[in-house]
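Re: Re: C-alpha cell formats

Sure, here are both.
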Amino acid sequence: MNPVVRSAENNVAFVDFFDTAIDPMAAPLPPKEERTVPVTIRFRPGGQPIEGLFEEPIVTAGILANGTTTGDAALLTRLIVRRGNQLAAVEMAMEMLSDAGRRNVPRDQLIEQFKKMMKSVSHSYLPPEQQIGSSVYQSLVGKLINLPEEPVGSPFPPSTFVAQETAMLNRQRVTLMESQPSLADVAFIGR
C-alpha cells in the first residue's frame, strides 16, 4: 500500500510480513482463511470523516507450506530474499559461535563481533528484507551479556551454551531450508 499523502519523506509503500519460517510467534494461516492487517488512520479536525494513510494497490504474496507460491511476483521475490538473508544470518551466527567455542574467545570480544554483525545489516539504506538478520545477532548479544560469570580460567563461551545455541540455530536453519519454494516457482519469478 502506498501512503495517501505524497511527500519526499513519506513516499514508501507499507509492507507487513507474516512468516512462520522466520518468526515462530506468527501463526500459520489455515486454508481458506484470511489475515487482516491493521493500518494507521487519522481523524480529521472538526469531525470530518476518517482519513486513511494508505491507498491502493494492495498486493499479497505467500509461500505455502508445501513450497508452492502465490501472489504478486515482486512481493514474492522480497519474501524469498528475506528468508535467504535470515538463513545467511543464522548460518553466520552458527559459524561464529562454533569458532568461538573452539578458540575460547573472551566475552567482550565475542559480544563485539556479534554487535558488528548486527550493525552491518541495520543500516537505514537497506530494505527490510536485508535487515532481518539483525535480530539473530541481537538475540545472541543479549544472551552472551546475560551469561553468568564463570570462574577465572574457564573457557568462554561455555560449551553447554555453544551446544544449546547452535542446536537452536540449526533447527531454525532446517526450517528455513525446508521452507524454500519449489524450483519451478522460483524460475517463474524470474520471468
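Second one below.
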Amino acid sequence: MDPATAIAELEMAHATLGSSMQRDIAAGRPPELDAIPGAVLRAAARHQISCPTIERLVEMITSRIAATAC
C-alpha cells in the first residue's frame, strides 16, 4: 500500500470521525484495551516481537482513564 494514498484518505475524512475506543472513553465506558491492542501485544510476545509504540499508547490511554476517574 502506498503511504501517500492512506494519508490522503485520512485527510479526506470528516472532522468528527473517531475510533470506537475514542467514543468509549468520551462516554465514560472502558475502552477495549484487552481486545484491540492487547491482542496485538500478546501475539507479538508469542513471536518475540517488540511493540514499544503500542505499549506506550496503552500506557497513555490507561493513565488518561485513571486521571479522569478521580
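The two ends are 43 Å apart (CA to CA). The chain has four helices and no strands.
- S.
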